Amino acid sequence: MILRKQTRKIHVGGLAVGGNSPISVQSMTNTDTRDVATTLNQIERLQDAGCDIVRVAVLDQDAAIAIREIRENILIPLIADIHFDYRLAVAAMENGAQGIRINPGNLGGPEKLARVVDAAKAHKVPIRVGVNSGSIEKDLLKEHGYPSQEKPTALIESALRNVRLLEEQGFEEIKISIKSSDTLTTISGYQQLSKLTDYPLHLGVTEAGGLIAGTVKSSVALGILLHQGIGDTFRISLTRDPVEEIRVGFELLRSLKIRERGPELISCPTCGRTQIDLFSIAEEVERYVQTMEKQIKVAVMGCVVNGPGEAKEADIGLAGGNGVGIIFKKGKLYKKVKEDDLLETFLEELKKIEQA
Ligand code: SF4
Questions:
Q1: What is the pLDDT averaged over residues 288-311?
Q2: N or C, which end of the chain is more exposed by having fewer CB within 10 Å?
């Protein structure tokens, strides 16, 4: 049982983050925000995959203005990601952004920050102080050195300094992230930060890499932190279609038994007993179960000899044989079909379960 560190609760649009609210899974679009149609298309795909919060980059006034139309056409809270220009932050909020990610120290002084804070208060918008290893102030790097597993201090001090700037303006609707591309620095950094603040924490490993490297790095760092009760929301960063970030995010939460979404798919690695093209069958089944909502366990196994036994706990499964395939439920034979009909029959059974 995971004992979650108690943090304050803030709201991003209608979604609560922190406190006892469910850990939310975020992603960020990689489209040009000014291209509303393409951005909307990507956000719809993210929504379908279960994304709780989406972030878009705001590089200029046109992108800030585009937020209005994007917001009107999506169902999940929208966060604007802004660097340096306070006018973009203000414009993004005026156009409906429900959260912003900025570094208060980068905005050009207290007066400009005050304008951002005034807008955030007026529009009830929380601010994420998002510090990356690459964005740490020079004096902190000089004092504490580049953040490392042994000493992530510069990251933490940078975040807390930015938080203080907001607090001095009477603003406390804050989330914090301190991202490093190094797994171990991420872990020790968040562990230490979590002892120093009760603001909700947004977890992530930055520039984590492609599908495999990024998934492994993020899962190790975030898996350890979440298991220790640290973290209220997160993004898995992948050099990939952002929809994959959401899929990985939910698998991570599922593996820690924190949150489930849709069916769990288990499949055998195949071995010398496999006599069917299990990889393509598993791929088709995986594609289908991603559209399902029911929280069942689905198994795709290579052989009739061991498959059903190995996947006894599955609600429904298939196993390939020589010329025939079987569909089993809880390890017991349910239907025997010609191998050529196996996939189609199985997908029909899944459909029945989803509609039941
Ligand atoms: S289910 Fe059958 S084919 Fe798959 S790994 Fe086990 S023994 Fe091999």
A1: 91
A2: N
Architecture of domain 264-355: 2-Layer Sandwich (3.30)
Query: Distance between CA atoms of 99 and 53, rounded to whole angstroms?
Result: 10
- pTM > 0.85: yes
Q: Is 271 in the pocket of ligand 1 (CB under 6 A)?
A: yes
Domain with CATH 3.20.20.20 in the chain: 10-255
User: What per-residue confidence (pLDDT) applies to 20?
Assistant: 92
Regarding the beta carbon of 272 and ligand 1, being less than 6 Å apart is answered no
Q: Does the C-beta of 303 come closer than 6 Å to ligand 1?
A: yes
Using the atom order of ligand 1, give the atom closest to the CA of residue 273: 3
pLDDT for res 294:
92
Share of the chain above pLDDT 90, in %: 85
DSSP strands (E only) in the chain: 10-12, 15-17, 24-28, 53-57, 78-81, 99-102, 127-132, 174-179, 202-203, 233-235, 264-267, 297-301, 316-320, 324-329, 332-338
